[in-house]
Amino acid sequence: MAKDPSNPGFTVGIVGAGTMGRGIAQIMAMGGMRVKLYDAQAGVAEEGRSFAERMILRAAEKGAITDVEAKSHIADLAVAGDLQEFADADLIVEAIVEDLEIKQKVFAALEAIVAPECILATNTSSLSVTAIAAAASSPERFAGYHFFNPVPLLRVVEVVEGLRTARWVTEALAKVARRAGHEPVRTKDTPGFLVNHAGRGLYTEGLRIVAEGVADFAGVDDLLREGGPGFRMGPFELMDVTGLDVSHVVMESIYHQFYEEPRFRPQPLTRQRMIGGVLGRKSGGGFYQYADGRKVEAKPAKLAVDIPDSVWIGDPGTTEGRALAAALAGAVEIETGSKPSASAICLFAPLGRDATSCAVAAGVEAERAFAVDALFGLDGRRALMTTPVSDPDLRDQVHALLAKDGHAVTVLHDSAGFVNQRVVATIVNIACDIAQARIAVPEDIDKAVRLGLAYPQGPLAMGDKWGARRILAVLDAMQAFYGDPRYRPSPWLRRRAMLGVSLLTAEG
Ligand SMILES: NC(=O)c1ccc[n+]([C@@H]2O[C@H](COP(=O)([O-])OP(=O)(O)OC[C@H]3O[C@@H](n4cnc5c(N)ncnc54)[C@H](O)[C@@H]3O)[C@@H](O)[C@H]2O)c1
């Protein structure tokens, strides 16, 4: 049993004083714990300590802590000249190079030095905690402790339970996290843990949409940001920030670790870019070009066409059809007959279906049929979807109609599920799989994603917000159209949608 983390003098030894180690040192010291920082490279531990000191002084300047508190926290930060100085540590957090053998060696050395009740934790993001612990003589005191970069700002940490981790270890780690001002989320040791697992959908479905020729990079990002779901950044903007040398490698690794699960299938286009050195901001440009550190925005073309005389809405009885009719009311004459007049443009607001299928099912010419995504409301950027034979003049007229009140419009090629329906349904579905596999409890899945990825809601709450039944309808239709098992609905989602209960409903 470890010392209670709320005890004065609780001592945390941090091995590796790079990007993560120094951030962890800062928050632990600010949480009132004693910290010792070690790095194999000469001078790096002292660099890390003085970095943490500067950050603590800055917090005092901003008034977040008092000068007295800052002094006390700084006094709690020490550099260890070698691992022997960790003999009195209550907890070790390892944040060294991401290499299984090197991590195992460092822990073997530590086990010979620290007390038997000292907790051993790794900040690995991609290795199996169970595999690192397999070489340890007491794997029950070993756990994952996965922080996010930048540590002081992303106030969540995954407490990862390896196959043999004891309960007292994860409980103590959760306490330490809270003391350091971070929210702990508990997860089983599975590829990507919680955040990197639940965060796959945004990338893999975004890439799939581009690879299918439905939209370009900016089209996907713009819709996810401005078209209702409310993401702060789209997948391509995010990949430019992280760099494909990291993002693509993580995509491939998680895909293979889950034995080629189709939900996580990467696309060749990121591999090609990575090989070509087009990594993102760090290589001077990626999916976007940057000038003075800012994204160069393409100017939208102005449409010089009239809006149509009348439109006919093919699904006036559905929630989405009604939303579309309400958004267009007053801007254009809406025909209410069971069949469109000869000159009317035909609009559909489907869930998970493409414009072609809507036109064929309604028996109207695909040349004058278009679909609009109404699942996320029509207050922001609007998605207009064409069929392969859409008349370009009519397309421009509908575009002008949708843009009439100053709305931005993104025109898509035909896609079962537009962009936002596909991406949001994929994200919700993956989170449902995580809950179904009992990797973590529903609240922790949502908390991890909200805090770790800054999504507008956790993925299960996101499903509830847009409607579990509607998300299920999107996935069923996509799977029927594409025949791809990546879209098969999670049992967790289907059952809760059938029962009409929240996706956050856990089982007793
Ligand atoms: N950077 C991130 O965004 C991030 C996020 C979450 C988790 N992680 C994980 O945290 C760990 C550290 O990542 P980082 O980004 O801080 O790396 P980093 O390269 O910035 O720092 C690693 C430090 O470890 C030191 N080191 C290497 N081998 C050592 C050894 N045998 N003994 C002692 N020190 C040693 C290096 O000198 C270096 O200073 C990795 O496991 C990584 O996967 C990184």
Number of strands: 16
Please tally the helical runs, counting DSSP H or I stretches of 4 or more residues: 20
Q: How far from one another are the termini?
A: 29 Å
Query: Structural class of the helix and strand makeup?
Result: alpha/beta
CATH class of the largest domain: Alpha Beta
Strand content: 5-15%
Rg from alpha-carbon coordinates: 26 Å
Helix content: 40-55%
Low-confidence spans: none
What does this 3D model show about the protein?
The structure is a single chain. By secondary structure, this protein is an alpha/beta fold. The chain folds into three domains: 11-189, NAD(P)-binding Rossmann-like Domain (Rossmann fold), CATH 3.40.50.720; 197-295, N-(1-d-carboxylethyl)-l-norvaline Dehydrogenase, domain 2 (Orthogonal Bundle), CATH 1.10.1040.50; 310-407. The chain has helices spanning 19-30, 44-61, 67-75, 100-111, 129-133, 167-179, 195-198, 200-211, 217-226, 235-242, 244-257, 268-275, 319-328, 355-362, 392-402, 420-436, 442-453, 459-466, 468-482, 491-499; strands at residues 11-15, 34-38, 77-79, 91-94, 119-122, 142-146, 156-161, 183-188, 290-291, 294-295, 310-313, 333-335, 345-348, 369-372, 382-385, 409-412. The strands form three sheets. Strands 3-2-1-4-5-6-7-8 form an eight-stranded mixed beta sheet, with helices on both faces. A six-stranded mixed beta sheet has the order 12-11-13-14-15-16, sandwiched between helices. The radius of gyration is 26 Å and the shape is elongated. The model has no long low-confidence stretch (mean pLDDT 96). The structure holds nicotinamide-adenine-dinucleotide. Nicotinamide-adenine-dinucleotide (NAD) binds at residues 15-21, 39-41, 44, 95-98, 102, 106, 123-125, 147-149.
